[in-house]
Amino acid sequence: MLNTLDTWALTLAVFIPLAGVVVLGFVDRTWEKGLKGITLLVSLLTLADGIYLLARFDYGASDALQFEVNRHWIDAINSHYHVGIDGISLPMLVLSMFITVLCVVYSWDHFPEPYNPKSFLMLILVLEVGMNGTFVAEDLILFFVFFELVLLPMYFMIGVWGGPNRQYASIKFFLYTLFGSALMILGFLAIYFKGGQTFDIPELVAKGGIASHVTELWIFGGLFMGFAIKVPMFPFHTWLPDAHTEAPTVGSVILAAILLKLGTYGFIRIAIPILPDAAKSWAPWIGGLAVIGIIYGALGCLAQRDLKRLIAFSSVAHMGFVMLGISTLTSYGINAAVFGMVAHGLITGMLFFLAGSIGERFGTREINRLGGLLVQAPKLGWILGFCAMASLGLPGLAGFWGEFPAILSAYQPAAGLNEALFRGYMVVASIGTVLAAGYLLWMYQRTAFGLPRDEFAEAHIHDIHTPEWIAWTPLLVAIVALGVYPHLLFHVTTDAVDGVTAALKAVGG
Amino acid sequence: MHLNAFLLLAAFLFCTGVYGALARKNAVLVLMSIELILNAVNVNLVAFGAFQRSIVGHIFALFVVAIAAAEVGVGLAIVLLIYRNRHSIDLTEVDLMKG
Amino acid sequence: MFFLRNAWIIPAIPVASFWVILLFGKRLPKKGSEVGVAALAIAFALSCLTFGAWIARDAKPAAEVVAATAPATAAGPGHVEGGEGAGGAHELPSETHHAEELRPAVDRNLFTWFEMGGTKVEFGTHIDGLAVTLLFVVTLISLLVHIFSTAYMKGDRRYTHFFASLSLFTSGMLILVTARTTLQMILGWEIMGLCSFMLIGHWWEEKPNSDAALKAFFTTRTGDVGLLVGVSILFFGAGRTFDAATINAAALSGRMPHWVLLMGATALFVAVIGKSAQFPLHTWLPDAMAGPTPVSALIHAATMVVAGVYLVARMYGVFWKAFSITAPGHAGFNPVAIVGGLTILIAAALAFVQNDIKKVLAYSTVSQLGYMVMGLGVGAWMGAVFHIFTHAFFKASLFLGAGSVSHGGSHHSFDMKKDMGGLKKHMPITFWTFAVSSVALAGIPILAGFWSKDEILLGAGKNGYTVFLVVGLMGAMMTAAYMTRCVYLTFFGEARGNAAHHHPHESPPAITGPLVVLAFLSVVAGLLNAPGITLFGKWNLNEVLVTAGVPEHTFNYGYAAVSTLIAATGIVIGGLWYFRNLGPHGITQRVKPLHAGYVFLDNKYYLDVLYTDGVVGSIKGPIARGAYWVNQNVLDGVVNGVGIAARRVAQFVYDVIDQQVVDGAVNGAGFTAESGGSLLRVFQTGRVQNYAAIMFGVAALSALGLAVLVTK
Q1: I need a surface site. Which of A197, A361, A439, B72 has the fewest CB within 10 A?
Q2: What CATH number does the domain located at B3-87 have?
Q3: Distance, CA of C535 to CA of C451 (rounded, Å)
Q4: Residue in C684, C689, C696 nearest the CB of B98
Q5: Which residues contact A125 (CB under 8 A, 6 or more apart)?
Q6: Which of C82-86, C194-198, C344-348, C514-518 has the weakest average pLDDT?
Q7: Domain segments of chain A as ranges
Q8: Is the pLDDT of residue C77 over 50?
Q9: CB atoms within 10 A of CB C64
Q10: C113: which chain A residues are within 8 Å (Cβ-Cβ)?
Q11: Is C478 exposed, middle or buried (0-12, 13-18, 19+ CB in 10 A)?
Q12: What is the ipTM of this complex?
C-alpha cells in the first residue's frame, strides 16, 4: 500500500489540482460556497500529499532522486514522464502547495472585480498544476510543458482581475516570458541533439558536459535568457513591476512566491549541472548582473510611490542575492540561494498579502497618502513592520539566511572564478542590505508611523479579518521558525546542493 | 466487292447524321440523326469484320444496335417531357445549363 | 560549573519574557511590566551565580591553559591559507600575563544551528571573564532600568510594548555577550538594532521620533556592512569557522596572511564605528534621545553602543595582529586609536554647546566610548573593558537621574537652560546621585571612573602612544568641565521655566532606588582593580591576552596624579565659570572666529547636513529617481521599444508583404481563374448542339492530328 502511494505521490501532487479543475468545471457558478469548499479541499489534499512527501522523504539521501517515476511518454522524441524530487525540489514543491492553500483561504471573501469565483479558483488550481509539475519534472520536455503551463492562468489573472493598466501588464508579462521560453526551448533542443538524443535530466547531468565549450556557451545563453527573464534578473526585470502592480493580490503573491523561483530553480536544476563548463564562463556575468540588480532594485524601490510596486522592485533586489549565491557555484552559495528562494517566497508573499489588504482598506496603495496605520489598524501595522524587518534580512528571521550566506559565499567562489571580482560583488551586495533597510523602513515610516492623513482620519479601518489571520499565521510562523533554526531547511538542501557542485568539480577549473 | 464502297456509304451516312444533329432544331430529327451516325458506325464495323474475317466487328455492331435502341427510348422520353413542359421541341430554347 | 555551562539560560529568559509580554502582557494586572522585572531579576540572579562560579573556577598557570587550547584550535576544519611571519613564537613585552594564573574559558555547543556545504555551524556559548562581567553589568543595569520604568513610564500609550522591547533589547545584548561564534554575535547585534529602532521610535506619532529611529537604524546598518564583510573574511581566513576563539587563535598563530587580517579587522571596525557611535558615524546617538529616558540609559550604559567595543574586545586577537598594536615600529598610531581619540575630543567639544541635558550625556557617552575604543587601540585591553564596566554604572545613573529630573522637576522637559535650575533643594536624592556620578565620570580618585580611565591613559603612555595620552588627558579635562556645567545648569542657580512653575518634587522610590544603587556602584566599582586588589584583572584575563602578550602595567602614581590634577582643573574651571561667573562670558558672541567655532559646534560639524542632505538625500532623491528614470525610460524603453518595433515590423509585413505580395499572388490566381471562366462562359451556351459541335470539332481535329501523326 505504502509503496504504491510512494510511486503515485508525485503524480498526485501534480494531478490532484487538475482533477480539482475538472470538478470545478461541473459546478454551478452561482454555488459559491461549494466552489470555495471544493477548491480548499483540493488544495488541502495536495498539501496533505506534500506533508506525506515530507514525512516519507529520506533526509539521509537528499541528493538522490526519490519518489521517482519514469514512464514512456512521447516515444517519438524519446521524452519520458520522469518525475522525482531531491533536497532542492522538495522545499520548493511544499512551498508551492503551502502558498496555494493560503491563497485559497485569503481569497475567501477577497475576490477581486470582476467577481467570478469559479474562474478565479480554477485559475489558481491550474497554476498549482504548473508550479508543482515544474518542481517535480526530471525531463526537459515535461519541465517545459509545466513551465509554460503557468503562463496562461497568470495572464488571465492579471488581464481579467487586474488593475487599470492590466492589459498592457498582462501582455508584457506573457510576451516577455514567452520570448525567454522560446530561447529556452531552443537550448533544450540543442541539448537533445548534442547530448545523445535524450531529454532526461539526470542522464544529461551524468554526462558532465555535452558539447564543445563554445557550443555549450551558446546553449547556456539560451537557457539563461529563459530563466533570467523569469527570475527576473536585471536588465530583464521590467515586466515584473508592471505585472505585480496590476495583478490581483493573490496573483501577486503566487507570482512573487513561486513563479519567480521557477527561473532560479531552472538554473540550479538544469542549466548549471548539465552545462557546468559553460556555467563557469557565465558565472562572473551572472554575478555582476545579480549585484547590479541588488543595488538597482533597491534604488528603484526608493523612487516608488506605490506600495506594491515598491515590493515588486524589492523582489528584483532579493532575487539578486539568490542569483549572486548561484553564480558563486559553491555549495554555500547555492544553499543560500535555495534558502533565499524559500525565504523570499514566504516574506514577499506575505508583504504582497499586506499590500493587498492595505490597498483594499484605504482604496489606495500610494505611500504618500497613507500614514498612521499603527493607529488605525495596529495589528496590521505591526505585521507590516515584522515583514519589513524580515525582508531587510534581520538575523533570527528567514530573510537573513538567504542574504548572509550568499554574501559569505562570494568571498570564495568556486575554483577558477575570479576571486577579486567576486569579493567586489560581496561588498556591493552588503551595501545592498543598507539600501534594503532604507527603502523598507522609509516605507514603513510613511505608512505606519505618524497619524492618519486627513482624508482617512474619519474612515473606519477594519483590523485583520479572520481569513487573513488564517492565511497569514502559518507564513509568520514559518518566517520565525526558519530564521531561528535554519537547520530545518539547510539539512534538506545541503546534500542535494553538493550533488550540483559535484558536477562542477568534475569539470575542474 | 471493294471495301471503299462500304466506307463511303458509311461516311455519307455519318455526315448526314452530323449535319442533322448539329443543324436541325427539331429534337426528334436530332435523335434520328444520331441514329444515322450510329448506323454509319455499324456499317463500318460490319464491313471491317467481314473483310477481316473477324466476328468482333459483328458483335460490336450488335451492341451498338442494342444501345441505340435504349438511347432512342431514353431520348424520346426526354423529348416527350420537354414537350410536356414547354409545348415545344425546339432545342435552341432548351438552354437551362447556360453558364 | 553548572552555571558556566548553562549560561545560555540567561539570554533565554528575556527572550521568553518578550514573547510572554507581547502575547499576554495586556491581560496581566500590571500590563506586563511585572513579567519583565521578574525575568530580569531572575536573569540577574543567575548572572551573579555565574559570576560566582567563574570566580570559584580553578585558575591554572596561563602558559598551561594556552598550550592546552592551542592544538585544538590548530585542528580547525578546512584549509588555512599559508601565513606569513613566524608561527607561534612571539616577542613578548616584559610586563605580560604569562606568569599569572588564568581561568580557562568554558565553551559549550548547544545544538547545530545549521550545516551546509560541509561546514557545521554550532550554536553555543563561550563563557570567560569578559562574558561574565558583561552578563553581570547588562542584567543589573537592565533590571534597574526595568524597575525605573515601572514608575517613569506609568500611563504610557504603549506601556506593554515598551517592556516587551526592553526585554528583547536586553536579550540581544546577552546573546552577543555569550556568543561563541561570530554569527551569533551578528544575531545579537542586529536584534539590538531592531530594538533600538522600536524603542527610539517608541512615540512614533511624532515625526522627529521616527526620524531618529530610522537614523539610528540606518547608521548602524551602514556600519553593519563591515560586520557582514568582516565576518565573511574571517570565516574563510581562519579556515571556515565562525568560532571566535578559533579565529583569534588562528590570527595570533600567524597562520593567516596579514592582509586578510587587515581587511577583516578593518571591516569589523567599520561596524564598531557605526554601532559604538564613533566619529564619523556618531551622529545617530544624540538623536536617539528621542526615545524614552530609560531606553537611553539602557542603550548608553549597558547595551547597543557597548556592543561595538565588546566586539573589538572579543576579537582582540584579530585586531591586535592586524593593526600590530604594540609591535615595535608600529606603535604610536593605528586606526582604532585614531578614531577613538578623535571621538573623545570631538564629542566632548559638542557636549559644551548642548542645552538638552540628555544630549550632554549622549555626547559624553560618545566621548567615553572613544576612550574605550582608544584604550583597545593602544593596547590597554583591560583598561578598556574595565571602563565598560565602570562607565555602565555612572552613565546609567546619570541618565536615570536626568529622567528623574524631568519626571519630578522640569515637567517632562529636558532643556537645562529653559526649564531647570535650582532643583537641588527639591530633589535631594536625585541631586546627590547625579553629582556623585558626575564626579565619577570626571575621573576623581576613589570613584569608579578614575581607575578605569587611568588604566587606559597608563596603557597609552607606556605602550608608546604618547599622542593619545595627551588626547586622553585633554578629554578628561573637558569631561570634568562640561559635567560641571551640566550639574550647575540643572541643580543650581535660579529655577527657570517649568522648574519654577510646576512645583518640583522628588521622584518615587521606584525611580530613586535604582539611582541610589547605581551611585553607590559608581563609587565603589572602581576599587575592584585598585592597586593591591586587581581582582578585575585576574577575573578577566583570557587566552587571547596571554597568547598575544597584551602588556599589563602596574598602577603608576605619577600618571594618576597628573590625570587627577587635570580632571580637578576641569572642574575648577567649570566651577569658576558657572558658579562664580568668572571668565570672559559671551566671548563667543563678541569675537568673530570664536563665534564661527561656536556655530560650527552648534551645527555638529555639519556632519548631519552631510549625511542627511548629502548622502541620504542624494540616494533617496536624485540617484533613486535617476535609477528609476533609467528603468522606466531606458530599460523599459528598450522593452517597449522592442514591442513597438515589433508592431511596426508587423505592420510593414502586413501592409506590404502580406497585403501586396502574398495576397497579390493569391488574388492573381483568383483573377486568372475568373477571367478564364468568363472566357469559357462564352462557350457554355447551354445548348446541346453547340456542345456537340465543339465535341465534333475537337474530335475531328484530334482525328486529323492522329492521322498526321500515324502517317508520318
Answers
A1: A197
A2: 1.10.287.3510
A3: 13
A4: C684
A5: A17, A18, A20, A21, A24, A39, A42, A43, A100
A6: C82-86
A7: 4-506
A8: no
A9: 12
A10: 485-487
A11: buried
A12: 0.88
